[in-house]
Amino acid sequence: MRYDADAGVSLPTWHDTAEQRMKLLTELGLDGAPDTEFDRFAAQVSGAFAAELGDHGKNLYAMVNLFTEQEQTFVGLHIPPGMRAVDRTMRPDHGFCPEMLDRTKALILSDVCANPHFASNPVVDKLGVRTYAGAPLIHQPTGTVLGTVCVIGTDPLPRETGQTSLALIKRHRDALMDALAQRAGTRGRHSSGDTSG
């Protein structure tokens, strides 16, 4: 646990929640491997941002990110045409998705450099990330954060796009959680020998 002096509470760290998270990911059949279904979903997320935000939403990467034992794993990844490739894994202290372990709300950063806490993150210099919108994938009923769905871009977005970005990322988070629930239900029926529709 780490103590947040501003909030006056102790918050779980990456390692505090790892055992429960890995157990739930296994139950859902999510092993951290790239998945074409999630890649297609990431492409849909990127496309939705482009459709809603016009030129401001072009060239946004999109990811379905799981927090595995020692790293972040992008099981779903969309790289916009002509943009530089990114790895499918990232250290647990890089990027903005780990903020979701400490919060249960979406995070919208129209310009990450506007806040010193976020501006100092290694991805700002390493990948040139300037904008981020992400929402946590929260397992119910345990409340455990499994990962995120997010978009990142190399150009800041106007502040007035914040509410649209928030609505978009939450809508896609909800759709992804529904898909995970269906996947878990199908997996449960097969493992119990029930193959009825």
Automatic annotation (TrEMBL):
InterPro entries reported for this sequence: GAF, GAF-like_dom_sf
Domain spans labelled GAF: 74-160
PANTHER family the UniProt entry points to: GAF DOMAIN-CONTAINING PROTEIN (PTHR43102:SF2), SLR1143 PROTEIN (PTHR43102)
Pfam families according to UniProt: GAF
Species whose genome carries this gene: Actinomadura bangladeshensis
This protein's name: GAF domain-containing protein
